[in-house]
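User: Good morning. I'm curious how cobalt (II) ion would be positioned relative to this chain. Could you predict the structure with it bound?
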Amino acid sequence: MLGFETSDDAAVWRLSDDSAALLTVDFFTPIVDDPYDFGRITAANALSDIYAMGGRPLTAMNLLAFPCSMGAEIVGEVVRGGAEKVAEAGAVTVGGHTIDDKEPKFGLSVFGVVHPDKVVRNRGAQAGDVLVLTKPIGTGLVATALKRGLETEESAREVIESMATLNRAACEAMVEIGVHAGTDVTGFGLLGHVHEMAEASGCAVELDAGAVPLFERALDYAEQGVAPGRTAEIVAWADPFTRWESALARDVWMRVLCDPQTSGGLLIAVAEARADALVAAVEARGGSAALIGRCVSGTAGEVTVR
Ligand code: CO
Ligand code: CO
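Assistant: Good morning! Here's the predicted structure, ligand included:
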């Protein structure tokens, strides 16, 4: 039903009239020092692409590349963190593959299911829809501060726990309420994913920057220029489709809005009449959700920051 031509989060393969397979893979290098946390975050991030499509994960396979010199104990902690997250999601770790590699990497290939008529896609947002975001922004900024010794894993605990949190509550709420489009916020930053959704949907977006939930100190790091190396690239890419009508400092806030996220929340376009119900449904499941803007008619993919 869906391949890699569109910017959707997973491939979709119809199995029968009432069942379709969701297939996805994700891996990266350590974002935190603690191997157990790295495992949890990586698994939550990989499972997120299933949730972004409105699906339910069933099985996961590990992809492991580690230097043998690092020892079995550390690698064991990574795998334990991953397996715990997979189990929390109600799925099962069924295998994987390991190679010896100088630079550590961990990831998962996840298989899930969804009803073929209920696939939530990146496109489908309509003018008048409200945009909802289910995790704060700033994981790249805080992780960079962590790498530079400005944060400790203790002070960054809120961010680490957020990255390790499944998007399950947001997904279940989205499926319950019925939405027009959804995706997870990851490597292109909030602005990039908003743009991709708007472009695929043929609408424009008005983003209320002041309403975007941020992690503590993320804005300070953006002001100080403590940002991941990739941010400048994303800002340069986003500049042409971004119109600035906000009193907030553009250069600082572009670094926030283009901050590449690891295991970010779901970005959902929902009919205005259902927006409050969606937020309530996320909160009822222990999650959080913020209204951050709306879809409007206009040049497809254009984002006006207010
Ligand atoms: Co994704
Ligand atoms: Co992905």
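The CA atoms of residues 95 and 145 lie 35 Å apart. Residues 9, 26, 49, 186 surround cobalt (II) ion (ligand 2) (CB under 6 Å).
Let me know if you'd like a different ligand tried.
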